[in-house]
Amino acid sequence: MKKKRIAGWKWVVGASVGAATALALLILTGSLVDRLVFARPLPATEAKKASEEEMKRSIRSLEARIKSVEPRGLYIIIDTAENRLSLMRGGKPIKEFIVSCGSGGLLEDPDGGRSWIFDTPRGEHAVQSKLVNPTWIKPDWAFIEEGEKIPSDYNERIDNDTLGDFALGIGNGYFIHGTLYTRMLGRNVTHGCVRVGDKDLREIYQAAGIGTRVYIY
User: Fold this and answer.
1) Is 8 a residue whose pLDDT tops 50?
2) Alpha carbon separation from 70 to 73, 84, 85, 207 (Å, rounded)
């Protein structure tokens, strides 16, 4: 993973204390100055010692609060700009994979007045299902995109090949799944799901369990 991406994520989940600590110290220093100015005068060495001790207590408290919101156990981070999926534990990457995320493209239904934007959903999610040999039930947009008539027969929507050998459902119809288009990995070309190569997908599928947190940005 690129350092700038790891650093950005650590700030979000709280693994890096720098900016937050600086802010806390500024606030703390201001409050100390107020007390030192308007309270009884203290000798310089005593005032410095009191300031340092209070700052240390504040930092320890801040680190404890940050630690409490850090995901426990294994979790997944997906960088949609770089098309990278990382298995993480304790704020550290275990392994990184090249994937394909949403294209951001817009598709409009020329007849029904509907439209779809093909973005991978950002935010915090969780693995809600684990499927072997998953079946894709093709939605209306899949036919509209191909210029085909939307079928009335449900069986014409069933596709047993496109999603690969495994799929991890993260809700609202979005999956981390396989792909027939491995040459497109690393590009933003999907309809919102996260596509992974077969070998990598097996490893991710085996590592993640139901409830595994998935953070997408």
Assistant:
1) no
2) 10, 21, 18, 19
